[in-house]
Specification:
homodimer, Rossmann fold, about 25% strand, 2 domains, eight-stranded mixed beta sheet
């Protein structure tokens, strides 16, 4: 922590009073790349070396960097540049458009989003360091392959094991944590900083040590089924993969506490919808359920999710946590999550509604996890 | 193994007699992407949707896909395509040039190479399945962060732990395994398939179970030092990071056999040079040393590496394996490795020279590891 804070502090001092100045390379840049640069007022300057292109633009992915493409200006050497208005803190996908061709910025790291490897820029958040590496014991994120009978494939998961897992003998509760549409099993680690968030929470004793399992929720339909409309994988088979293949494999290979009281499921956006559907549909397996900006359509406390909420007292005895999160800058998600929360409150079903100021982007979900994880397995 | 072989077999049958036909999507494509496609004769068809571009090309990274850019042809809808001559089996980096701007193909996975995230295409190798997932016990590759006093940074490693590591109590030997210039700590996993290679070797009892540690060998010079000429990180500080920070951290955090007889170092290209320099310079710490297509300049058995080879008998008693690998299609590397081998043989220094038919590309190094790892810790 000391070192990291010192670096951020020195960057901040160095930029003080340089509003609109050249700033510092984004932490999401590849090593040595000087652009994109983030100024002290969070304006972002992009630069693209493309002398033979006719038109070059930066197209934001999420809302926090803006909503429409920025036209870049060419200098005499064929270097194109543009500076955006101040960006919202957090992680923003973006694309470079070279004569209309949508691609990556070679100067930025890529992250799996939009069903492909996509550039992103990280904007520092003066209000938060909970997702940055600190001088605390660190867990690990591991890639593991396993064979899924449901899909007939070797599939990869990423799994967070807390500090002390390897050297200890204890058993741990498990959170199944899913990404959004077009992302994959790497996203909570790369975009979400899940390991730093958990390391910091566990070190502060704000969360109990737990295992976190991250699968790829974009599960192609089973062999023989028609492909999804756009040729991309759908997510229809994920429930079967999770229940029939993944949970048994995790409980066989890891030192888990293998019962519903020590098993949680959560996810963001599409993954929030999956968490609600799978969690509420398998209360014999999950006692904690979280929807981070999940899509919830036409919610009715009497009929939604096969009427699981109808007997509020029974539900409250059985489910230890039902958690909804949404940002005020993602109006539709906010309204639907808030609406579900209010209906459930009225029906006497205990649940939590957590609000952030963010749009439908990863900063939202980092904050969500930081609120959700401490409530688990208490 | 059964399932994977069946998939490949069915693809092969499906393509039989379709030389030059449309083929199958490369395994390196993002899910659902139909291009690049690899035909049964290993010709590769690329397709890029860029209606407003004036010129679109595919530029090979390594030699196995060709040596010069391929001009693509535009159809009436603005889709550009080209089919290459038959490619060499294995992993080939490539770039898309959009009006001269060098970028990624959104349809392919990216891999860290050339100091940035770079597209690649995987060409099946009819002669080899040792680097594919099979129905054997699988180890894990974990990302771990640690603080380096040498660089004053939080640094990330990737580490392979063999099947049974988590559930057992035993201690294991350690191989430090490094990537090439412009790559990073993810490369042996993503490009190299290190986990599948080791899982398969260990299952066949061809290699002893071992831990494999992969750091980022592009270590920026120490704070205060002048930056490398091109603004990219150099590798000057890697030796200090490895010896002073990394080895002690690994021996503290993992169940290692923490002596020289159970410690190996190897690497490819730049990493091969690092393995020779660091390994031969620290024989108190390493008993096994491997250079996969490493750069070896002006080798002299009497004077190179501080004269470590001068007393051949002493060297032979101390070093359990000195291993050189090179491909016949990478002439300079082959000549220098072969030259070092011959000089050492003549001087009575025991060493192994291993030859592949490949160029300076990853297929070479997958084969190298498959020969090198079985010789360790016997």
């Amino acid at each position: 922590m000391v070192k990291v804070a010192a670096i951020f502090l020195s960057a901040a001092l160095c930029l003080a009073g340089q509003s609109g100045g050249d700033g510092a390379p984004a932490s999401s840049n590849v090593p040595g790349a000087q652009y994109p640069r983030v100024a002290s007022d969070l304006r972002v300057t992009f630069r693209i070396n493309a002398p033979d292109a006719q038109k070059v633009q930066i197209k934001p992915g999420g809302d926090g960097l803006g909503k429409t493409p920025y036209d870049m200006t060419r200098d005499a050497n064929g270097i194109w540049s543009v500076t955006t208005p101040p960006a919202v803190p957090g992680f923003h996908y973006y694309f470079v458009l070279i004569d209309g061709f949508q691609t990556n910025d070679p100067q930025s790291e890529t992250y799996f989003g939009y069903n492909q490897e996509t550039s992103a820029v990280e904007i520092p958040d003066a209000a938060a360091d909970f997702y940055l590496p600190k001088d605390v014991p660190h867990g690990e994120v591991s890639a593991r392959w396993y064979f899924s009978k449901t899909t007939g494939q070797w599939r990869r998961i990423h799994i967070y094991t807390p500090p002390g897992y390897d050297s200890g003998r204890g058993r741990y509760p498990v959170l199944y944590l899913q990404h959004g549409s077009g992302e994959n099993d790497t996203s909570w680690t790369k975009q979400g900083h899940v390991a730093f968030i958990m390391d910091n929470l566990i070190a502060a004793k704000s969360a109990v040590p737990m295992i976190i399992v991250m699968e790829n929720g974009m599960v192609a339909a089973k062999p023989g089924a028609a492909p999804a409309q756009n040729g991309r994988p759908g997510n229809a088979a994920f429930e079967e993969v999770l229940i029939n293949d993944l949970v048994p494999m995790i409980d066989a290979h890891y030192r888990t506490l293998a019962d519903r009281d020590h098993r949680a499921i959560a996810g963001l956006s599409m993954g929030g919808g999956q968490a609600l559907r799978i969690g509420l549909g398998h209360l014999d397996k999950f006692a904690y359920i979280g929807s981070f900006s999940g899509a919830i359509r036409g919610f009715d406390a009497n009929t939604s999710y096969d009427g699981v909420f109808r007997d509020a007292a029974a539900f409250n005895r059985r489910v230890k946590l039902l958690w909804f999160g949404a940002g005020t800058a993602e109006e539709a998600m906010h309204n639907s999550a808030r609406g579900a929360h209010d209906s459930l409150e009225k029906a006497g079903v205990k649940n939590v509604f957590h609000e952030t100021p963010f749009a439908h982007e990863w900063q939202n979900w980092r904050y969500d996890l930081n609120d959700f994880a401490p409530r688990l397995f208490r």
